Amino acid sequence: MPKAISNNTPSDASDQETPPGPTETVTIGDTRVTLLGTAHVSRTSAEEVARFLASGDYDAVAVELCPSRYRTLTQPDSWGETDLFRVIREGRAGTLAAHLAVSAYQQRLAEQLGVDPGAEMRAAIDAADEQAVPLWLIDREVGITLKRLLWGVPWTHRLALVGGLLTSFLSREKVTEDDIERLKEGDVLESTFGEFAEHSPRLYNHLVGERDRFMAARLRQEVAASRRSGSFDQGVGDGVETGNRDHVLAVVGAGHLAGMVDELSRSDAADPATTIDELNQMPPRRRWLRAIPWLVVAAVAVAFVMGFRQSAELGFRLMGEWVVINGALSALGAAIAGAHVLTVAGAFVAAPITSLNPTVGAGMVVAAIETGLRRPRVTDFDSLRSDITHLKGWWRNRVARILLVFIMSTMGSAIGTYLAGFRIIEQLVR
């Protein structure tokens, strides 16, 4: 049974001027796991991680990273391999935009503090490589977390989430390193959405609680696999045989420390694979929510039929208003996003048609047109991380602008659909 032990620091930590971050040690079977709480944009946290691993006390390193975030951190040029057409076609443009906005916020904090975001994770990766010990990626894919966050809470909480993201991104208030270090105190949430999640248990659960369970399950899974094999199974790259695992260092955000200790200390924990599968599933969409777009289409079609039954003039007028209102608002959204003039025209044509087919979104078509007309250059991918830290950069960078075009044209079409619908009903009941 895993159980909590007293706080643990390397032997030389007491000699440092900077006090160590929060740590806890638990046991999983015969394996000790020391969890080190860090702040994701803190120079002190990066130095702490390097100091812990320099002690040579650890036989494996676990980090709060998923495979995609690991690639972004270790291969900063990997953005250039992004297939935007595929992202748009698979409906992941909004998720990618949200991921970029979060990255932009952390990058802005990092610029103020003079430290790269994720420097403590980078230090752990480098130390694991230098010492030839296994590296485990234990966090859930960021895209899954964002989707569960979006679809697992009421629409009012979604507004708070989007508002928190925009506020964090647009704010230019200076943040000191002391402020960042306070993230180590207690159960503090991820900095980007913290203020909003603190007042919403459901947001907190998706953002922090679920990931506490996921990372605890991944640790159990890796420890069990290593015990079965009798050697270290390196999580990234080739395995390196170094004997039985005795001590693992897990580098995680301080806000996850207490929750992970609770999970790892439970004697009734479910099978790790079962927990991981459960937490990777998308929340079931309510049937009535899935039916709304089709009900809107049916209502519009019925309205057109009723209009033509009254008179051909009314029927054509209703169709004309549907096209003008829906198309104009989607085109306006594309124009605000800085789309090409032909993309704006495409939005005007596509939105009234796609709004009558819920399987194809206006934003998907419009963003594809923009991508074809202004295909991102290598320099756009190279400068993406720096451009998105400034509001103007979202319009200047072609990759970011395509995502804006997708979002703004989609919003315009959605608003236009309901405004045109109300307008049609108004004319039918006169």
Can you put this structure into words, describing what you see?
The chain is an alpha/beta fold and 430 residues long. The protein has 2 domains: 3-280, no CATH class; 287-428, no CATH class. Helices cover 61% and strands 7% of the residues. It is built from 20 helices and 6 strands. The chain has helices spanning 43-54, 67-74, 84-89, 93-113, 119-131, 142-151, 155-170, 177-181, 194-197, 201-229, 257-264, 272-280, 287-310, 312-336, 341-354, 362-373, 378-382, 384-387, 391-396, 398-428, and strands spanning 3-5, 23-28, 31-38, 60-63, 135-137, 247-253. A 6-stranded mixed sheet has the order 1-2-3-6-4-5, with helices on both faces. Strand 2 and strand 3 (31-38) form a beta hairpin. Helix 4 packs across helix 20 (398-428) and helix 14 (312-336) runs antiparallel to helix 20. The longest helix has 31 residues, at 398-428. The radius of gyration is 25 Å and the shape is elongated. Mean pLDDT is 77; it is low at 1-19, 183-189 and 232-245.
What is the N-to-C succession of helices and strands?
Answer: EEEHEHHHHEHHHHHEHHHHHHHHHH
> What is the count of distinct domains?
2
**Head-to-tail CA distance between termini:** 73 Å
Rounded Rg: 25 Å
Structural class: alpha/beta
- The residue ranges in which pLDDT falls below 50 over 5 or more consecutive positions are 1-19, 183-189, 232-245
Assess the beta-strand content as a share of residues: 5-15%
Look at the structure and give the mean pLDDT: 77
Main beta sheet strand tally, sense and closure? 6 strands, mixed
Question: How many E strands?
Answer: 6
Indicate the percent of residues in helices.
55-70%
Backbone shape: elongated
Note the total helix count: 20
The neighbouring-strand order within the major sheet is 1-2-3-6-4-5
